[in-house]
Amino acid sequence: MSRTPQAPSPKSPPQGARPPGASSGTPDVLVVGGGIIGLVTAWRAAQRGLTTALVDPEPGGGAAQVAAGMLAAVTELHYGEQTLLGLNLASARRYPDFVAELTGATGATGEDLGYRRCGTLAVALDADDRAHLRELHALQQRSGLESEWLSGRECRRLEPMLAPGVRGGLRVDGDHQIDPRRLAGALVTACERARVTFHRTWAERLVVVRDRAAGVVTTDGTELRAGQVVLAAGSLSGRLAGVPEDVLPPVRPVKGQVLRLTVPKRSAPFLSRTVRAVVRGSHVYLVPRESGELVVGATSEELGWDTTVTAGGVYELLRDAHELVPGITELPLTETRAGLRPGSPDNAPLLGPTELPGLLLATGHHRNGVLLTPVTGDVMAHALTTGELPDEARPFTPRRFDAAALTEQPV
User: Fold this and answer.
1) Rg (Cα) of the chain, in Å, rounded?
2) Using CA of residue 305, residue 309, residue 311, residue 317, what is the dihedral sign?
3) Most buried pick, 63, 241, 262, 303, via CB within 10 A?
């Protein structure tokens, strides 16, 4: 199991600055964690002229291999998360240019990444769900978001495969999707072309020299030094030995089980856009890819480090999806997977410098890791080169969870 450093820290040194005793042969930045957040951080750092290394046994793995890839800033809005909404929207606005830049850097295309501006339809199956969706629509409108209320008949006109019992829904054309596996693969290629050095092993322990993060020791005993260390190890970000206890990020694993089915190529279109709903109190979504893959997810389970695919999880997802789209039971089931989202106490990411000099965090993205990839890369590159967070990211500083900050909050 991978371990990673964590902690809140003050300003990181500006570009080119090195801690006392660092040799010119050490990289400016060492990123711990090779998921999409670690990869985009390394890529953007290298683009800023920082010599960059990344440590992870399987770059491109992690939660991205399980995620559905919904870029759903509007339909992911939850009560009490309006501050996070601002960051989500900022990242969603970046996505078209981000995809264009990434494809230009790798020779891929937007289609290769599974990027689709297909929209989302959130539907209700009973009167209670309909009332809840109406409240969500009102919240979206108060937040200045674009969504359109549709009757059940209008929903079925858009998506004929929907169940006859659909009572109404919200059409959100601004929510898009991307294939996280292809995104991760493209980011690995982009990092390689930007001359990011990969160390394909686990980080075992943070190296602290003169009260400053100075690198890591890997599981094979190799010491990797760097001017700055970024802990971007997802749900594992709180498990790196050597990180002072008072700066460990409060990140926990949240299990999610996901199914993948295949729509036969010769059949009529199954769904044209992402469809989601709350069924029996559980969120379910169906994400159709142009490749014919249909992703169904996702459970949300607080079960520690367990990644077992269970019969109950598969059954519940299929049962709820069947209530939305009855024809789903005719499709071949091609894959079942479980992964771990990095959850934080307020469901928002921890970005930027910590209270341990030289240590920065890029973790805790929970259900929004894929959506927040572009803005996270920009934020972390800015922090690494200036030592400061840009204005849009300041609410997400790791310092908001310091003991002093927590005691100042009203009960």
Assistant:
1) 21
2) positive
3) 63
- CB hemisphere CA count around 35 (13 angstroms): 31
Greatest CA span in the chain, whole angstroms? 70
Domains of the chain (ranges plus CATH)?
Answer: 1-115+176-250+345-411 (3.50.50.60), 120-173 (no CATH), 252-343 (3.30.9.10)
DSSP type of residue 135: H
Inter-CA distances, 13 with 29, 158, 160, 212, 248, Å? 11, 53, 56, 11, 21
Report the sign of the C-alpha dihedral through residues 241, 31, 107, 89, in that order: positive
Give me the helices (H) in 268-388, please: 311-324, 373-386
One-letter amino acid for residue 365 of the chain: H
Question: Which residue is associated with the tokens 């030592």?
Answer: 387
Q: Residue 81 CB: number of other CB atoms within 10 A?
A: 16
Burial 128-148 (b: 16+ CB within 10 A, else e): ebbeebeebbebbeeeebebe
Report how far apart the first and last C-alpha atoms of the chain are (Å, whole number).
37
**Alpha helix ranges (H) inside 48-151:** 82-106, 127-142
Q: What is the mean pLDDT of residues 335-343?
A: 96
Say whether the peptide bond before residue 298 is cis (omega within 30 degrees of 0): yes
Cβ neighbours of residue 9 closer than 8 Å, sequence gap 6 or more: 213, 247, 353, 354, 355, 356, 357, 358, 359, 360, 398
pLDDT band at 40 (very low <50, low <70, confident <90, very high): very high
State the amino acid at position 31 in one-letter form. Answer: V
CA distance 101 to 99: 5
Per-residue H/E/C for 77-106: CCCCCHHHHHHHHHHHHHHHHHHHHHHHHH
| pLDDT given at position 24 | 58
Task: Name the H helices within 107-199.
Answer: 127-142, 152-158, 180-193
Helix (H, G, I), strand (E, B), or coil: what is residue 368?
A: helix
Distance, in Å, from the CA atom of 40 to the CA atom of 369, rounded to the nearest integer, reads 11
Top-confidence residue, 322 or 10: 322
Residue position matching structure tokens 């919240």: 139
